[in-house]
Amino acid sequence: MTPLGSTAEDAGVSLRDAVLLVCSLFVFHLGRGWARGLVEGEYLIGIVGLLLALAPVVWLLFVIRKAYF
Question: What are the domain boundaries of the chain?
Answer without folding.
Answer: 14-68
